Amino acid sequence: MKSPLRLPARLYRQFDADPARTTPAESYRGWHAVDVELAPAHTALVVMHAWDCGAPSAHPGWWRAVEYLPRAERILTEVFPPLLAAVRASPLPVFHVVGGRDYYSHLPGHQRAVALAGGRRAPPAITIDPTHRKLRQLRVAEGSPGAHNLADIYAGHARLDFAPQARPVGNEGVAEDGEQLAGLCRAHGVNHLVYVGFALNWCLLMSPGGMVDLSRHGCLCSTIAEATTAVENRETAADEREKAQALWRVAVEFGFVFALADFLRAITPAPRRRSASRPPVGGSRPSSPRSSLFSVPSVIAEKPSPS
């Protein structure tokens, strides 16, 4: 049996509300750090909807409608390469969750996932009436993504593909829905999924193969704070408040929130010591400081327990 991986994580103490207060939830104890053990034989990294969306100049309407794309590009460039390299060098498997157009069915990892799920099961479609169609058109025009952006969005989706930094390697499992991902989990003995990709409060949560799906199969679903972002709006984007809420939701409902530095440290083998040598001259060995959990949003901070 492989040794457990030990690292700090964050949970949100969603207790104890005080009915005597005007706002009972203000007495919740809030974010705090806990020490956890992960079983390498039962834990996997899930890379979900990490897409190559092209340059803003190629599909400007897509970039106008999806405000998080610049943040996703930075994460793909700065976070994904060291994270995926470290996980691939560790005992943890990497799974991929895909969607949109078919850019993956030729991959052996997807064919394996289809076989494990017993074939694709498309849900029966509901009947669409003219009123329903008009309501959807109204939402597109006056809500999201804006009718004037549709042509660019369709053009972008027509060339959708894995981002270069997130392309599957070898026989890594590739799932397009919850049944296929659950099949991969069963085949590998995995019961704890650590999700990264885009976006935490949207696809990673609700799309096929997301946290809602896999939690129904009994999996713990966690995330790495720096390896994802969220869909924001005009009122929340500057402080990434929707990301803060999404991280809270993961911590309360689905699993744990890890810091990138802590996760990398836990899965990377420590360098072999030459000998049990004495402490360095001038004092004892310094202890490794626990990394701060988030470089985003500032609202996620450890909150002292109410007296």
Strand portion: 15-25%
CATH architecture of the domain at 45-241: 3-Layer(aba) Sandwich
Average pLDDT taken over every residue? 91
CATH C-level class of the domain at 45-241 is: Alpha Beta
Strand-and-helix sequence, N→C?
EEEEHHHEHHHEEHEHHEHEH
Structural class: alpha/beta
User: Roughly how much helix do the residues carry, as a percent range?
Assistant: 25-40%
Shape: globular
C-alpha Rg, in Å?
21 Å
Query: Using DSSP, what is the number of strands?
Result: 10
Number of helices: 11
| Uncertain ranges | 278-297, 303-307
Spatial sequence of strands, sheet with the most strands: 7-5-3-8-9-10
Biggest sheet, in brief? 6 strands, parallel
**CATH topology type of the domain at 45-241:** Rossmann fold
**Measured distance between first and last alpha carbons:** 44 Å
